[in-house]
Amino acid sequence: MYAMVLEKAGQPLRLKEEPVPRPKPDQVLIRVHACGVCRTDLHIVDGELSEPKLPLIPGHEIVGRVVQAGEKVEGFRVGERIGVPWLASACGHCSYCAKGRENLCDEPVFTGYGIDGGYAEYTVANAQYCFHLAEGTEDTAMAPLLCAGLIGYRSYRLAGEEVRKLGLYGFGAAAHILTQVAKHEGKSVYAFTKTGDRKGQAFARRLGAVWAGGSDEQPPEKLEAAIIFAPVGALVPAALRALGKGGTVVCGGIHMSDIPSFPYDLLWGERVVRSVANLTRRDGQEFLALAAKVPVRTDVTVYPLEQANAALSDLRSGKIEGAAVLAMDFK
Question: How far is CA 107 from CA 49, 50, 85, 89, 102, in A?
Answer without folding.
Answer: 17, 17, 17, 9, 10
